[in-house]
Specification:
The complex is a heterodimer of chains A (about 230) and B (about 625). With about 230 residues, chain A is α/β, with parallel strands linked by helices. Chain A has a single domain, classed as P-loop containing nucleotide triphosphate hydrolases (Rossmann fold), CATH 3.40.50. Helices cover about 30% and strands about 30% of the residues of chain A. Chain A has a six-stranded mixed sheet, sandwiched between helices. Chain B contains 24 helices and four strands. In chain B, helix 2 packs across helix 8 and helix 18 crosses helix 20. Classes of the chains: A alpha/beta (about 230), B mainly alpha (about 625). At the A-B interface, helix 2 and helix 3 of A face helix 6 of B. Chain B: Its main location: membrane.
């Protein structure tokens, strides 16, 4: 079996002087969707930020496609094919929807751009009519879709998704779930941090539960509900 | 008031506004993306002017002249890029205050570099070819060059607007201004962006300077003067807003023009020369804007959080060792007058140190436990000095009452200015304190009948028993010890707890029933009174004072002393003031380039010993426990 796309072993992370992650280990294989579950403040978002290099971190091994990324800065990690959809969406509110997308567009590692606007709009039809809309004037659900679209135009191989269902309407969650399933079907690997277990079950193969910054449980997604505390 | 006089002043004002706008726009763009307030931005302007004067003189013909101007601005842009790579990259993660001081240190070094390269004389550049004449406007002759400059401002504003809206670079800058982390997460090279942005900002400042070639001579005071003006403009317009900067530059220029055009007016039977207001007019406008709309005309409210990352370890009451050390220091201090027989200079130096310690301790109370960085603490030092001096010489009061008058004057000033200042945070607060200090300085400088203007006041001598060197020294020691003791009591009283709570988490403190603004106001006033006491001692120690006593340099000295000692320790200001005074009285006296030396010292502090002397010592004793 080939090396996993993302390989994390013994990951510690800090916010200033406070340690938030303690020796986390997990893997994401190519084409696999993996869920990070756990309570608020357990360290799910921190794990994703640590992979992106957005918090101070240290790991025995932090590798993407077999190559060590523990010493790389955030933009280098992004360029290696990691797309990041942050917790609170972090849309550039001053820029239009199209400018948000344009800023993020770059070819994948193979030099191909797989995400022309038409394909994005096919995935998220709601966005098609909002090209000139300022990011700050979009609704939460629209912003959430834009955040995913913005990550996709970087042509990633691994998508880090932080709470895509948080604070958006149920109908949007449904659309988002469908879109993510479609993405997974194209072979994109996904690491999803999510409170919404139903969404995880729709999408993910395996799950890791984080308790107070440490790995609490891991196993097949189908068994995750039984472990809930 | 004649309308043509006003129109004339307005064109003149718009011409100055253009230069100021270039600097302010650069400052604003840099702050937007990097969150650094570049105190060296005035120095970039000054260097642009010096370089342009030199180049325009050497290169032949009109092409040489205009090409020289552009080359000068480009060279400054390049310097900016170098500064970003070599210095700023090392300080993005340090607390805001250290960034301010580090870039100020850079300004000091650049100033001495200009002194070394071009000498202390003013340099006047050649007139602009093609624009040497003047145009007639309502019966007045206006220099063509001023008219050209008045149009250059809006032209650059438009160019910047297009750059920001139409180019990928501009969009990246706008995105990074909002969320630079997210920009990096999209694969954009943050480091490269920061370098480019800093180079652009420096280029704009250099251009602003270069374009003044035909208007004003290059001189070494320009950097601070322009920096102050540019700050005012940026704060009025709103940090990060380019149109705001232009509007504010025009507003300030127009208010000044109006003051000059109005000339002497009578208010309630008193003749008042409005043109004297020009020095303070911009600061008055800024104070007004900050109070009514703290984020500036076009600015957005600042995110309140940001502080939490820099929270300090809690203060601990002094242990046995600390007490012993303090008593030993006191014993040494008491023995100093006896030293005079072997080393005559000892009491003089020691008195300077005591004054510095009191002054630094007063600022430390504000900055450490209070969390309010003042860039204008010299105002209260100066109010104390002038209050004491006027009471002693003008009113003929004895020494002690005169001293009390000085403290009260400083306290009254702090009470008044503090009310405005404590409502703001961070950079805005620092800028407002600077603005108030400039107002006090201008008043002292211009109110010749009372303050003696630039000549200052002389013959301020204490009477018995303070008229001997030892007498005054011991009195100063008593004041210093009492001041330090009071500060300690304050810090460890519930008042001090509330003050620190407000510093670390303002909203949480308010939610638990603490009136943060009031607590901070009281601390501001107490700090001002103590600074006033230092000023009063200074007046008696020197016998004469001048506006220099409360100039911006003294505020910076105090900042350096506090940082040198270490912000997080109550013993910091004592150590910092002592070391700084020693350094100033020995090394810096020996060289023409003391600014560069001071700058290098500050940079070394920020980059190598951010904890200051006290931080370094406690780390030494803790045996590396403070790691992490």
């Amino acid at each position: 079996m080939s090396a996993p796309l993302l390989e994390i072993d013994g990951l510690d992370a800090w916010y200033g002087p406070a340690q938030a992650l303690f020796g986390l280990s997990l893997t994401v294989a190519r084409g696999e969707a993996v869920a990070l579950i756990g309570r608020n403040g357990a360290g799910k978002s921190t794990s994703l930020k640590a992979v992106m290099g957005l918090v101070r971190r240290r790991a025995r091994r932090l590798a993407l496609d077999g190559a060590d990324i523990s010493a790389l800065t955030t933009h280098r990690i992004a360029r290696l094919g990691v797309g990041y959809v942050p917790e609170d969406r972090r849309i550039f509110t001053d820029l239009t929807m199209e400018e948000n997308i344009g800023l993020a567009r770059r070819p994948g590692r193979d030099g191909a751009d797989r995400w022309p606007l038409e394909r994005l709009f096919a995935l998220f039809p709601n966005l098609a009519d909002l090209r000139g809309r300022r990011g700050g004037a979009m609704s939460g659900g629209e912003q959430q879709m834009l955040a995913v679209a913005r990550a996709l135009v970087g042509n990633p191989e691994l998508l880090l998704l932080d709470e895509p269902s948080e604070g958006v309407a149920p109908i949007i969650v449904e659309q988002m779930t469908a879109a993510l399933r479609e993405l997974k079907a194209t072979g994109l690997s996904i690491l999803l941090s999510e409170q919404n277990v139903a969404l995880c079950e729709e999408l993910c193969d395996r799950a890791y539960r984080i308790d107070q910054g440490e790995l609490g449980w891991s196993g097949p997604m189908a068994a995750a509900r039984l472990t809930a505390d | 008031m004649a309308l043509d006089a006003l129109a004339f002043q307005m064109i003149n004002g718009l011409a100055s506004a253009s230069g100021l706008f270039f600097v302010a726009a650069g400052l604003s763009i840099i702050f937007g993306v990097t969150r650094i307030v570049n105190m060296a931005h005035g120095a970039f302007y000054m260097l642009g002017l010096y370089l342009a004067v030199t180049l325009a003189d050497r290169l032949p013909g009109p092409l040489g002249y205009w090409g020289g101007l552009l080359l000068a601005a480009l060279a400054v842009g390049l310097l900016g890029a170098a500064v970003e790579v070599l210095l700023l990259r090392r300080i993005y993660h340090v607390p805001e205050l250290y960034q301010l001081v580090a870039t100020f240190a850079l300004a000091l070094i650049l100033n001495d570099a200009a002194l070394w390269l071009w000498g202390p004389e003013d340099l006047l550049g050649p007139r602009a070819p093609g624009l040497k004449g003047s145009v007639e406007l309502i019966g007045r002759r206006l220099p063509e060059y001023d008219v050209f400059l008045a149009f250059a401002g809006p032209a650059v504003l438009l160019a910047l607007h297009l750059l920001m809206k139409r180019t990928r670079f501009g969009r990246t800058v706008r995105a990074a201004t909002q969320d630079r982390e997210m920009v990096a997460a999209l694969g954009i090279n943050e480091a490269l962006l920061f370098t480019a942005v800093f180079a652009l900002g420096a280029f704009l400042a250099g251009l602003g300077g270069a374009l003044q070639t035909a208007r004003e001579p290059a001189n070494l005071n320009l950097d601070l003067a322009v920096l102050g003006d540019a700050f005012v403009v940026v704060v009025i317009g709103g940090m990060g807003s380019i149109p705001g900067a232009y509007l504010a530059a025009v507003l300030v220029a127009l208010v000044k023009a109006l003051c000059i055009a109005l000339g002497t007016v009578e208010i309630a039977g008193l003749a008042f020369n409005m043109s004297k207001l020009t020095l303070v007019a911009e600061f008055l406008v800024m104070a007004l804007v900050l109070v009514l709309r703290p984020q500036g005309l076009f600015g957005r409210p600042q995110a309140a959080a940001a502080r939490a990352a820099a929270s300090e370890a809690p203060l601990r009451p002094m242990g046995g060792t600390g007490r012993a050390l303090a008593l030993a220091a006191l014993a040494v201090a008491l023995a100093v007058p006896a030293l005079a027989t072997v080393w005559a200079y000892a009491p003089v130096l020691a008195l300077d140190m005591l004054i510095a310690v009191t002054f630094a301790a007063s600022l430390h109370l504000l900055m450490g436990p209070g969390g309010m960085a003042s860039f204008g603490h010299a105002a209260y030092f100066g109010l104390g000095a002038y209050g004491t001096a006027l009471a002693a010489t003008g009113l003929g009061l004895p020494t002690l009452p005169a001293f009390a008058v000085g403290i009260l004057a400083a306290g009254a000033g702090a009470l008044l200015f503090g009310w405005f200042c404590v409502r703001l945070e961070g950079v805005y607060l620092a800028m407002l304190t600077l603005a108030f200090a400039q107002i006090v300085w201008s008043v002292v400088f211009q109110w010749e009948e009372v303050t003696g203007g630039s000549n200052g006041l002389i013959g301020i001598w204490p009477d018995w028993p303070f008229d001997s060197r030892a007498g005054l020294y011991l009195a100063a020691l008593a004041v210093t010890v009492a001041g330090l003791y009071l500060i300690r009591r304050l810090i460890f009283a519930p008042f001090g707890h509330a003050l620190r709570a407000g510093r670390d988490a303002r909203m949480r403190a308010e939610a638990s029933g603490i009136d943060v603004a009031r607590i901070r106001w009281l601390a501001f006033t107490a700090s001002g009174m103590l600074a006033g006491a230092a000023g009063g001692l200074y007046a008696f120690a020197k016998g004469s004072i001048s506006p220099e006593t409360l100039a911006v340099g003294r505020s910076i000295d105090a900042l350096v002393m506090v940082l040198l000692g270490g912000l997080a320790s109550p013993a910091g200001p004592v150590l910092g003031a002592g070391a700084f005074t020693l350094l100033q009285d020995t090394v810096m006296r020996e060289t023409d380039y003391w600014r560069a030396l001071l700058g290098a010292l500050i940079l070394a502090l920020v980059l190598l010993f951010p904890g200051g002397i006290a931080g370094g010592l406690s780390r030494l004793f803790a045996g590396g426990r403070a790691d992490g």
